[in-house]
Design a protein that fits this description.
about 300 residues, alpha+beta, Pseudouridine synthase, 3 domains, 9-stranded mixed β-sheet, 7 helices
Length: about 300
């Protein structure tokens, strides 16, 4: 196949490389972005990032055939509380038990399926997870940002990479930490022993979690947790690594008896707060979400032990 080549026009000048490649090759922006990330797109002979702002006269070469993406998830009528919405984004309160996007074992019934049934549909990113700029584990409840417009998605994704979205979690952890606060700086990757689990491993991806003890109870502690990175299972693995796993965590936890006594059927982990700058308006955004009823009940039980 001959490569696709074009010179950046005056009309395209200043646009993002992924957006310009998408419009010139008639594919989605996500397809164009993946080609750029794979090194299959050059600008004046050099590889650039998807966010590169093109200049008039630059010569762009797309070395591979770009094909349209397969059909995405189908809309489904699933109730998901929305805490904020405008024309560019929305913030939802994801219930525990709801998977964020389709994947192996979960072809439907996800948050993405629910959002596709709304008038303000999610936009941006992979066709299988449109609008999703960060995720919560299935068993974790709380706040999530979802993009409704392509530029908003791109900006939010970059903000997440630069750690410019502050996420605050509440966790009920096993035992009593020796300190009132701390920072867990330990790389994470797939466990060599259990490939379905994440573990602290040498050579893993950088991961940093800060925590503060809010309340010391008899057998457990209520923590405020702020992850500075967004690795898979990060909070759960990091807290388990320091001996204070999230109560109710069937994968990484240890004190199953206490979790059962408290009536926990999922990890006591809740995304309670979001703080970020709006990607379009520049407004300071701060949202909070109270504990769900099951966690409130478990916490009351822990206080009465």
């Amino acid at each position: 196949m001959n490569p696709i080549e074009f010179d950046v026009s005056a009309a395209d000048a200043g646009g993002r490389l992924d957006s310009v490649v998408a419009s010139r090759t008639d594919v989605s922006r996500a397809v164009a972005a993946r080609a750029i990330d794979a090194g299959d797109v050059t600008v004046d002979g050099d590889n650039k990032t998807r966010a590169h702002r093109v200049r008039e006269g630059e010569h762009v070469v797309v070395a591979i055939a770009l094909s349209a993406e397969p059909a995405g998830p189908l809309p489904e009528q699933i109730d998901v509380p929305v805490r904020y919405e405008d024309e560019w984004l929305l913030v939802v309160a994801k219930p525990a038990g709801l998977v964020v996007h389709p994947g192996p074992g979960h072809p439907g019934g996800t948050l993405v399926n629910a959002l596709l049934a709304r008038a303000g549909r999610p936009v941006g990113g992979d066709v299988g997870r449109p609008g999703i700029v960060h995720r919560l584990d299935s068993g974790t409840s709380g706040l999530m940002i979802v993009a409704k417009e392509a530029e908003a998605y791109a900006t939010l994704a970059e903000m997440m990479l630069r750690h410019e979205v502050q996420r605050t979690y509440v966790a009920l952890a096993e035992g009593l930490p020796d300190t009132t606060s701390g920072t867990i700086d330990a790389p994470l990757g797939r466990s060599p022993q259990h490939r379905k689990k994440i573990a602290v491993v040498a050579g893993g991806r950088d991961a940093v979690t800060k925590f503060r003890v809010v309340e010391r109870l008899r057998e457990c502690s209520l923590l405020e947790v702020k992850p500075e990175t967004g690795r898979t299972h990060q909070i759960r693995v990091h807290l388990a690594a320091i001996g204070h796993a999230v109560l109710g965590d069937a994968v990484y936890g240890h004190d199953r008896k206490l979790a059962r006594r408290l009536g926990l059927t999922r990890p006591f982990l809740h995304a309670a707060g979001l703080a970020f700058t709006h990607p379009v308006t520049g407004a300071a955004m701060t949202l909070e979400e109270p504990l769900s009823q099951d966690l409130e009940t478990a916490l009351a039980s822990a206080r009465s032990v």
